[in-house]
Design goal:
The protein has 253 residues and is of the alpha+beta class. Helices cover 27% and strands 18% of the residues. The radius of gyration is 22 Å and the shape is globular.
């Protein structure tokens, strides 16, 4: 067999493999408009069950409020959603975390949150609203936490450009940041959409750190399942903004 025939054979094989790979839907899954990258080491075909909305294309108008979120860190343990949500909130306001995973573990330690799933005398499973608000105050921020929050309160905060941290029953108990709301231009509450900056964005075919949920369902599911003390379980939230008051303010609504 001549060298030319060998080269032609190799080219043909490469072409066939390339064609098969393209048709299978696995080419270029890096977050483009028609194909998505699921995570850093796992690939999916084009979305079939989700719309794959690109949050960066949304613009606030008469029925939609969408805060300008640029990056949302994804947590590296099952128990650090609170610390990472706090980091993401600070990032929204311009704080730059450069330590990567070490920052996540440092903030978790400062909030006394277990990163192993085993609580002890000095750590808890998940960050309580008290621990989160206290941590923000230690950073020189104004921090308010409370229970019995309302969707209307979240919407008012959004209109003021303030994201709100909320903990709800997702994953049995999960901190997210409310960064958007869409009433869809109708008077009905049950078709409204609430938008989260989510450190565990692994279920909507687009790992951009943004998740979406029906606002009515969220309101009904806005409680902690089993991580918090009884007096902190119902519609808990933390509102933190840059500045310093020197104290944490608990609020009962």
């Amino acid at each position: 067999m001549q060298l030319r025939d060998i080269v032609l054979g190799i080219v043909l094989v490469i072409f066939l493999v390339f064609t098969a790979w393209t048709l299978s839907g696995y080419l270029g899954l890096t977050g483009t408009a028609d194909k998505i990258r699921y995570s850093t080491d796992s690939f999916l075909k084009e979305p079939q069950y989700y719309t794959g909305i690109d949050y960066t294309t949304l613009r606030s108008d008469y029925h939609l409020t969408a805060l300008p979120v640029k990056t949302v860190r994804q947590q590296v343990t099952n128990y650090t959603c609170g610390p990472v949500a706090a980091m993401n909130l600070m990032t929204y306001y311009g704080v730059n975390f450069t330590g990567g995973d070490s920052d996540e573990f440092r903030v978790s330690d400062e909030m006394h949150v277990s990163t192993t799933g085993v609580a002890n005398a000095t750590t808890t499973l998940g960050a309580t609203p008290v621990a989160m608000a206290s941590w923000f105050t230690d950073q020189g921020w104004n921090a308010t936490w409370g229970t019995n929050g309302s969707v209307q309160m979240l919407r008012e905060n959004l209109k003021e450009g303030k994201p709100t941290l909320v903990e709800w029953i997702d994953w049995g108990g999960h901190w997210v940041i409310v960064v958007g709301y869409d009433d869809r231009g109708t008077p009905l509450f049950w078709d409204d959409v609430i938008i989260f900056a989510d450190s565990s964005d692994c279920h909507d075919d687009r790992v951009d750190g943004i998740t979406y949920f029906n606002a009515g369902e969220f309101e009904a599911m806005w409680f902690d399942s089993h991580y918090f003390p009884e007096n902190m379980r119902n519609r808990v939230y933390v509102l933190a903004v840059p500045g310093s008051t020197g104290q944490v303010t608990p609020v009962e609504r």
